[in-house]
Amino acid sequence: MNRFSGVNALVTGAGSGIGRATVLRLVSEGAAVFAVDRDETGLAETAECAVGNPGRIETGVVDVTDEEQVIATVAIAAERLGGIEVLINVAGIQRTTPIETLSVKDMRELFEVNTIGTALFCREALRHLPDGVGVIVNVASTAADHGNPYMSAYAASKGAVLALSKTLAAELVGRGIRVVPVSPGNTATPLTAAVSPGDLDFSYFDRVRSLLGTAQPEQIAAAIAFAASPDASYFTGAELRVDGGSHT
Ligand SMILES: NC(=O)c1ccc[n+]([C@@H]2O[C@H](COP(=O)([O-])OP(=O)(O)OC[C@H]3O[C@@H](n4cnc5c(N)ncnc54)[C@H](O)[C@@H]3O)[C@@H](O)[C@H]2O)c1
Hints:
binds nicotinamide-adenine-dinucleotide, 7 strands, alpha/beta, 15% strand, seven-stranded parallel sheet, Rossmann fold
């Protein structure tokens, strides 16, 4: 497939996991990608993995919570690529904390990275996305609309990403710009590897495990690429849930 030949894409969270897999999928299909993350080492690894593909990659270090950095990064991406047709917001963090010990610091961090970071990139990229062509894909989570114990603030921040995406889809449909929230289920990445039950009772999660096993980042990237591609030209505002049937 060569669905992204001649397409310029900006991808956040590109230094690891789902973001890296997304970049690799896009360059394998011919895209020119501006890949950003706060992790410079991770970005360099992503760029190394991308070598030999038909597309090309440039990288930029950014903290998605820093408004000035986001403004500058999107402008640089547009200049280096010669425009932006696709924005994919993948950068995110997770915390596993019972409500009794949830701190304001954790709540703020989750919303700043997952929700505000996503909204800032949408706002800035919209200056460049062409009418009738532009696409935004925002990575939410199954936690956005299904209860996951100990993830209250994470889930709320992702519920906000879902609401933001649906609102933007309605706001921009007249311009022919699509906005698709993609909600992965449990996926094997450093983010989930860092979660440890400790003293917490994780038995609830046995009820919502996919019989297909844990997703690989490449399986989520394939869905993100579909959402960003012309194959999804009539798909906007609806949540694309990629959870192996765990939450049906
Ligand atoms: N792994 C899962 O099971 C799962 C499930 C549902 C949703 N998600 C979502 O998918 C997205 C990607 O997660 P992943 O599993 O690949 O995790 P990951 O930890 O492998 O990757 C997340 C990336 O985001 C970057 N990042 C974090 N904060 C940042 C900031 N302030 N500025 C710039 N970059 C920042 C990290 O450096 C990292 O490279 C996240 O939004 C996550 O919430 C993951």
